[in-house]
Amino acid sequence: MLVQTLAQEISQLEANLCSAFADPTRILILYSLNEHPRNVTEITNDLGSNQPTISRHLKILRDHGLVNTARQGVTITYSLADSRLIQALDLLRSVLHDTLTSKANLIVEIKS
Description:
CATH superfamily: Winged helix-like DNA-binding domain superfamily/Winged helix DNA-binding domain
Strand order of the largest sheet: 1-3-2
Largest sheet: 3 strands, antiparallel
CATH architecture: Orthogonal Bundle
Number of domains: 1
Low-confidence stretches: none
Number of helices: 5
Strand content: 5-15%
Order of helices and strands: HHEHHEEH
CATH topology: Arc Repressor Mutant, subunit A
């Protein structure tokens, strides 16, 4: 019973972590921070979005422990908490690529 409860708790933690990836803007922010640490203005300019939207997404990423912050005066600089996040996102992109390729091949076969 204890093992099952622990497995359920771990699965819930995983689901919570994955929920941070549930928005395309947050994924783009993570890729942007993978290049180098940035402040909100830099991220806003990089993604072509508005500051309130970026700030809201950064709060979610921070709350999930995916980004770190460093204050320098009035400026807060954000960085990736763990570079493996990008590896995980790249792995997901690879799975997505393979899935889309498979579906495209099926469509070609059906039309042939």
